[in-house]
Automatic annotation (TrEMBL):
Gene behind the chain: tpiA
Cellular component annotations (GO), alphabetically ordered: cytosol
Protein known as: Triosephosphate isomerase
Source species: Salinisphaera hydrothermalis (strain C41B8)
Alphabetical list of NCBIfam families matching this protein: tim
Sequence positions that bind substrate: 10-12, 174, 213, 234-235
Highest taxon of the lineage: Bacteria
Transmembrane feature ranges: none
Active site: 96, 168
Keywords: Cytoplasm, Gluconeogenesis, Glycolysis, Isomerase
Lineage, highest ranks first: Bacteria, Pseudomonadati, Pseudomonadota, Gammaproteobacteria, Salinisphaerales
Family: Belongs to the triosephosphate isomerase family.
Keyword Isomerase among UniProt keywords: yes
């Protein structure tokens, strides 16, 4: 089947009110010319402001994390999916490598957060990927198979049907070093085959994004891969012009 391309931005811990407003104005102007699905995932405090700025467009606002707790309660500092949805978020990044590495998020926590996102009506962008050490040890496929296996065993079918996957080679995040188009396509094909071993129909429809130093000058070549359905963009999403140029690279 033909999967619609999807470009998602991840601002990480960056941004300001002025930056959100300027970005929103630029996207309102550019959105009519962009023929793909789009989302921008910003820090919690800016989600509602960005959602309002983009409400006249097809560009969605999103968050970068959520609590695995669905119901309100005594979880100081946590934010659940219902709160994000109420602020206008439609997407949420789950299991980013920085959350896994810096904050100890396990595969089981990633599954719980994906389920919590779906319960709140959000689409989880679930991240998977290997470190440089794992790649050099020829462990890429084993790592990805483990991460995908946790999802297919732990998630409800409705979650797997609704989620977006993002393959992010950790060695390419924020380093300026990107997987080659051939490497990206090869890994994406493997990821899709792993899902197909569980359910071929879901595998065929599942969007799989590439995330790892995506820029306007390499986006088109990356998107040419048959199993590369778009990108999870980090640094290049902080400026509207580079984010828009990546979206325009969709073919």
């Amino acid at each position: 089947m033909t999967r619609r391309k999807f470009i998602a931005g991840n601002w990480k811990m960056n941004g300001s009110v002025g930056q959100v407003d300027a970005f929103g104005r630029a996207l309102v102007e550019a959105a009519p010319s962009l023929d793909c699905d789009l989302a921008v995932c910003v820090p919690f405090v800016y989600v509602e402001r960005l959602a309002r700025a983009l409400e006249s467009t097809h560009v969605a606002a999103g968050a970068q994390d959520l609590s695995s707790e669905v119901d309100p309660g005594a979880f100081t500092g946590e934010i659940n999916g219902s709160m994000l949805a109420e602020c206008g978020a439609r997407y949420v990044v789950v299991g980013h490598s920085e959350r896994r590495e810096m904050f100890g998020e396990t595969d089981d926590i990633v599954v719980a957060k994906a389920e919590a996102a779906i319960a709140a009506g959000l689409t989880p962008i679930v991240c998977i990927g290997e470190s440089l050490e794992q790649r050099e040890a020829d462990e890429t496929e084993n790592v990805l198979a483990r991460q995908i296996g946790a999802l297919t065993r732990g998630c409800e079918r409705r979650t797997l049907e609704a989620m977006v996957l993002a393959y992010e080679p950790i060695w390419a995040i924020g380093t300026g070093r990107s997987a080659t188009p051939e490497q990206a396509q090869s890994v994406h094909a493997f990821v899709r085959s792993q899902i197909a071993n569980w359910d071929a129909t879901i595998a065929d429809s599942l969007p799989i994004l590439y995330g790892g130093s995506v820029k306007p000058d390499n986006a088109s070549a990356l998107f040419a891969g048959a199993d590369v359905d778009g990108a999870l963009v980090g640094g290049a999403s902080l400026k509207a012009d580079s984010f828009v140029d990546i979206a325009r690279a969709v073919i």
